[in-house]
Amino acid sequence: VEEAISLVKEVAFCKFDETIDLAVRLGVNPKHADQMVRGALVLPHGTGSNKRVLVFAKGDVLFKQGEAGDAAYLLLSGSAEVSIGTPTGQFVLATINEHEIVGEIAILCDVPRTATVSAASEVIALRISKDRFFTLIDEFPEMAVEMLRELARRLEMTTMRLREAHAKLGAGAD
User: Fold this and answer.
1) Distance CA 164, CA 158 (A)
2) pLDDT tens digit sequence for 5-31
3) What is the number of other CB atoms lying within 10 angstroms of the CB of residue 123?
4) According to DSSP H, which parts of the chain are helical?
C-alpha cells in the first residue's frame, strides 16, 4: 500500500485533491453475519467540515422507522429499499437508487423516521448531518427546489399506489 501511495504522489499532476479507487480482496463471505465488512472514511478537505462516507453491505439497515432523524443519506452507489412496518411484516414502499437522497423527511419535518431503509445491494452513501443539510439548503436554494420536486414526485407515486390499492379493495368487496 505504501508503495502504491508513493507512486500515486509521484505521478500526480493536478493542483487539487485527486481521487483514488482501491479494491481489496478480503476473502470474506458476506453471506455470513460474522464476516460483514463496513467502513467509514472521513474526508478532510472541502467546506471545512467532515463528511462521512459509509459503506453498507446488502441487507444492512441505514436507519429504522421510529428512530430520531439526525441525518440524511445521499446514495453514491447501490440501491436501498424503503419499507414500513405493518401488522403482517415489512412492506416495501420504494427503492432509492444512486444519486438519490433518503432520510430528509425526518429532518425537514422534525419527526421520527417515517420508514426503515435497508441496503438492497452494497451501498456507498454520504451521511449529511441535520445542521449541514440546512446549511446546504441556505447556500444552494436550487437544491431546495430540486428536493421539493423529488418529494412531490414521491407523493404522486404514493397517491397512485394508494388509488390502485383502494380500487383492488373496492373490487374485492363486490
Assistant:
1) 10
2) 677 677 666 555 555 555 556 666 656
3) 24
4) 2-11, 104-109, 130-139, 141-172
**Beta partners for residue 90, in sequence order:** 85
Say which residue the cell 432509492 belongs to: 96
The pTM assigned to this predicted structure is: 0.66
Q: CB of 76 within 8 A of CB of 138?
A: no
Mean per-residue pLDDT of the chain: 81
Which residues are bridge partners to 9 per DSSP? none
Q: What is the DSSP letter of 109?
A: H
Taking only Cα atoms into account, the Rg of the chain, rounded to an integer number of angstroms, comes to: 20
Would you state the torsion angle of the CA atoms of residues 116, 122, 125, 130, taken in this order, to the nearest 10 degrees? 20
**40: which strand partners?**
54
Cα–Cα distance between 51 and 2 in angstroms, integer? 24
Q: Which residue has the cell 459503506?
A: 55
Residue whose cell numbers read 463471505 = 29
Any idea what the Cα angle at residue 16 is, between residues 10 and 18, rounded to 5°?
A: 60
- Among 81, 84, 50, CA closest to 66: 84
